[in-house]
Design a protein that fits this description.
four-stranded antiparallel β-sheet, three-stranded antiparallel β-sheet, 7 strands, alpha+beta, elongated
């Protein structure tokens, strides 16, 4: 074989090997740059694992018409949680914002609780936290500590700022609860109440109320107003919500409340008046600061850089 032919063959062989090596290196480089399958997104550079996002998708099932929408809502809520964690790391509240570090904390907490129970030491809360329950518990603690540090850095709230906030939110803050007078017809069973209800077809509510009151049968007059509506709404929420919607002179359907049955009539309803700032100063201050802290967190969310990986679309609910 001539020298020139041998040199050409060697050159082609070398070039082929170079092409193969470059292709293999490029494929290796691409694969090494790809995120692991369990990483579905990055928020400000922090990795988001599939299991972490699934915690939020399970809470978001009722939002959106498709699982794609559910995942998007979940990512938005997770972003809010994550930027709070990242700010907490920056301020020294927690050491790490990764999901794996959270799982380590969760395991240690459950081990601590198990050991305490075995040694007959009193613990508060559940015997053992689920992942989601501990995530919520831990996140609430982080948020409270972050808010405390935020409050320490805030300047004194001026009287003008507080008054302006009070005026802007007067419908919620200044308005007192309506004064509502309720007349009740009460029976211990639904069957008896159905029988009583049928009498309203031939008698007026007031006639029936007065007759039962004179006979010593179950009747009651209740006045719902600013001083007691919170207690009533807390312990008799269904009843409260129903009577709150009654107009003056309107009669309710049968209401079950605290083991008895009743039909009620709204006898009188009048505005409860208004508070001035001094009467609600503490509540107004709390709401003012809560709004400021919410805006602070909103800014963190707005500035967040969110990147989905190719594995985001692979998430499914079990």
């Amino acid at each position: 074989m001539k020298l020139q032919q041998r040199q050409a063959i060697v050159l082609v062989t070398v070039l082929s090997l170079l092409v193969i090596s470059f292709t293999a290196f490029a494929a290796y480089k691409k694969n090494s740059d790809d995120p692991p399958e369990n990483i579905v997104a990055y928020i400000n550079g922090s990795t988001i694992e599939a299991e972490e996002l699934i915690i939020f998708t399970q809470m978001m099932r009722h939002r959106g018409n498709s699982f794609t929408q559910v995942k998007q809502h979940a990512l938005q809520d997770l972003t809010r949680a994550k930027v709070v964690q990242q700010e907490a790391v920056r301020l020294g509240i927690i050491e790490n914002d990764t999901y794996s570090s959270f799982l380590d904390e969760w395991k240690k907490e459950n081990e601590r609780r198990k050991s305490a129970i075995e040694n007959e030491v009193v613990i508060f809360g559940p015997r053992e936290y689920s992942v989601q329950a501990y995530f919520d518990f831990r996140q609430a603690n982080i948020l409270n500590k972050l808010k405390y540090l935020w409050l320490e850095r805030q300047p004194t709230v001026s009287e003008d700022s507080l008054l302006r906030f009070f005026d802007e939110n007067s419908e919620k803050l200044a308005k007192k609860h309506d004064l509502i007078t309720i007349y009740k017809l009460i029976e211990p069973t639904q069957e008896k109440m159905e029988q009583l209800k049928s009498q309203l077809e031939t008698k007026s509510f007031i006639e029936l109320f007065n007759a039962r009151k004179a006979a010593g049968e179950l009747t009651e007059v209740e006045i719902i107003e600013e001083r007691n509506y919170k207690t009533i709404s807390k312990y008799s929420s269904e009843y409260y919500n129903l009577v709150l919607g009654l107009n003056e002179g309107e009669i309710s359907s049968i209401i079950k409340n605290n083991g008895s049955y009743m039909i009620v009539m709204c006898m009188q309803r009048r505005p409860g008046g208004e508070f001035d700032l001094n009467e609600k100063r503490e509540e107004v201050m709390t709401m003012y600061l809560d709004q400021g802290f919410g805006e602070y967190v909103d800014r963190l969310v707005t500035m967040a850089k969110i990147e989905k990986t190719e594995h985001f679309g692979n998430i499914v609910l079990n």
